[in-house]
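3.2 Worked example (two chains)
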Amino acid sequence: MGRDVRLVGVAGVVWGMGFWLVRAEWGVEAYWVAGGCAVGGLVGFVRGWRGLAVALVVGAACAVGVGIRVEAVESGAVREVAERRGTAEVEVVVTAGVRRTAKGVVVVEGRAEWVGVRGGVRVRTPVVVMAMEWEGSAGGWEKARVGERVRGGGRFAVPDGGGLVGALVLARGPAEVVGEAGAWQRWAEGVRAGLRGAVDGMAAAPRGVVPGMVLGDVSGVPQRIHEEFRAAGLVHCLVVSGANFSILTAVVLWAGRWAGLGVRRAVVAAGVAAAGFFAVVGAEPSVLRASVMGAIGLFAVFTGRERQGVPSLAGAVILLILLDPGLAGSYGFTLSVTATAGLLLLAPRWRDALHAWGLSRGLSEAVAVPLAAQAAVGPVLAALSGQVGLAAVPANVLAAPGIGVTTVCGFAAAVLAQFSADAARWTAWPAGWAASWVIAVADAFAALPYLVLPWPGGLAGAALLAACTVAAVAAVRVRRVRRLAVAAGAGALVAVAAVRITAPAWPPDGWRFVACDVGQGDALVLAEAPGRAVVVDAGPDPVLVDGCLRRLGVRKVSLVVITHPHADHLAGLSGVLRGRPGAVLAHSPLSGLGPERRAVAAARASPALLAAVQGRRWTHGELTLDVLAPRPGPPPPSGDGTLVNNASVVLLARWPGLSVLLAGDLEEDAQNALRGLVPRVDVLKVPHHGSPRQEPAFLTEGRPRVAVISVGRDNPYGHPAARTLQLLRPARIYRTDLHGDIAISVSNSHLHVHTRP
């Protein structure tokens, strides 16, 4: 155990060193850190402090690696263009599968190898390309394949946090492929295409899910299915993870030993299968990380040496961070490590405990594995999302058989497709049936209420959930602690009940306007009649906006206005439409409707679509809604990527005794264009979550008495800006990150503000 702890300590030092240096973007400075660590390591060896010495020496190696990479990124032509926000042609070799976000942004990770400055400069710098579908810049990028060289133009910017990425390239205009992928990458694409062909005759849901579960190809997964998998805690099934690797190699090892190959030959066969898996899914960092973690867990399970798995895991962390220091700040890497640690340290003990309590060995294993993994990754997920899901463990237990069958049969179908399309189709059918079972499990759990609890985000939330997990485990294991936990739980229930009884009623009587607390995004509800409302924007999460509407008792939505097609305003649309039929969907005229149509399809709804332009008016009961912007035609020009924000739909909502201005994500150019059109209002929904890009005259022209800012707690953008808060000071300021849901009501000609933390 001593060696295990020492190696874990070394891994912790390397991880912390990599995270700190990459976040600080230290180049030359990292060499000084390396020198200090090397001297400290030498002193440690002399004094006999072997563990500390090894940690410092390995930390020095990590610092040198970070220094080399950061210096290369910061001193190159790519960063030079990015720092002056210049525009240039660039040739990028695609290194990871193309992703499409809910807001219609095509994201391409790659390595820039040529940039069109000073007559053309050869480089080797990691970049991220973002192409907007609605701006017509996604052509060429959206169809790029791993290994291809793609050339296009764009505006360069320094990415937030910098790190080991040289630039964020905002694509402008179409791109073209100027170099094909290598032979093995073309073969891998053929295997992926073979699987897509094998499932082509299936229903839409399994046709999209099987390639996602087997190869991480989510291009065909309907948005609705993706949301249900996420709500049920099964979204890990749609990305390449250690589970894919473990299932595949476990089956090959079992088959080899059953066929009498012996352990060594079976291991060789499993290695060949793993190599094929690498080739097909792409040898990108996330795949390497997942496969290494899966291999460690598989080794521990098959050898029955869980204790040896811990130093192996620590060694893998050290090796991977030395090879790619950027992993130290990756949430995906953190999730992989913590999940594997949970499987190694917790799952065997919990399996044995469940078996001792009377469960069968197989059922004990089926329950212990997802329970241990969820307990380990829960604090990380809570820090990321600000919520805790309760469905993950039972959903994973029920879905496990389907996941295994889908992975094995799907991969077999992909391989057979290279030789016989008919054999591949027959082999793929069991994968489709199994995937349908997993989809049914996700659908059932996603439909259940109260399975997602709000939770503090960030480090505080992670620490709180970790403490609760430790307390729960102690309560189960120790009788005295169990009694104390029961008493504490009973006290907590009484306290919660007391708070519920004494808390103000929600929704407040006579409410007219509500800003839902949906994190970093907008979701605004305008009362029309009892049980009926108009919704302006849907926030980033269907679960959160649906919960807000349920709390308000909204059963029917007559009109939904999406001010602009960004995920923090659009991605929650299915949560508004599902179960509330009959809505009309109004959108910004700039939008190409791709993001909106995908969101509508996710909700299995079919609302009428219309463009919201200046001069349009809707009347719903006592509510009158006027569109102040955008004007027909292009929005005010902008050279810094704010084109879509400046095309936001701006609305004036009026009820007897109350007026509210809803300004979307407008920035200075578009705010100036509205000068003179803004009447006096009672409430201003502050544009763009209170960002610093505000025109002072626009904020004060309507002389609002109340300013509402819809913003996420601890968001990475620094919203709301101190300057914006200063400009709004004449008004009473309410923020969803501080006050939760914010409601405005009117009684006896008096305006009242209510909050629900």
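3.2.1 Second chain
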Amino acid sequence: MCHNFVNTDVSFVPRLIDRFQARQRTAFVKLKLFEGTGQVKIKAPEGDFNIAFFDSITQREQLLFPFKVVDKINQFDIELEVNNGGMSCLAKASRYAIAKALCCFVSTDSIEKLRLAGLLTADKRVKERKKPGQEGARRRYTWKKR
């Protein structure tokens, strides 16, 4: 859904919008991306937050990294709706959603930059299951000779 106009009123200057969803392990993120001034709004089950929702600076940098790659910092507003998962998984899922949504607003050269930075590839890894007769997914029980 690229370039949807929010309001059809002629007197209103339209803001371009794109929506995208992403997953990372158990984390689930819904994203709305607007042309704007760089505001970040995060809706979590605990309440509404800004970018301070992510405790670590590295997680905040991950959130904004797609904008740095295409040189569009402070040109888009972000609304995130986050569910489940840990903070690092939410940050990675948000980064992927932002990168995919940015593809509707930037040139093909910028899309290639995003692809080369590895931002358009989803990380589909999940936890390996525990096997019967073992302590965990790979760990065996201690072997005793006698």
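3.3 Remarks
Residues 13-116 form a domain with the Ribosomal Protein S5; domain 2 fold (CATH 3.30.230.10).
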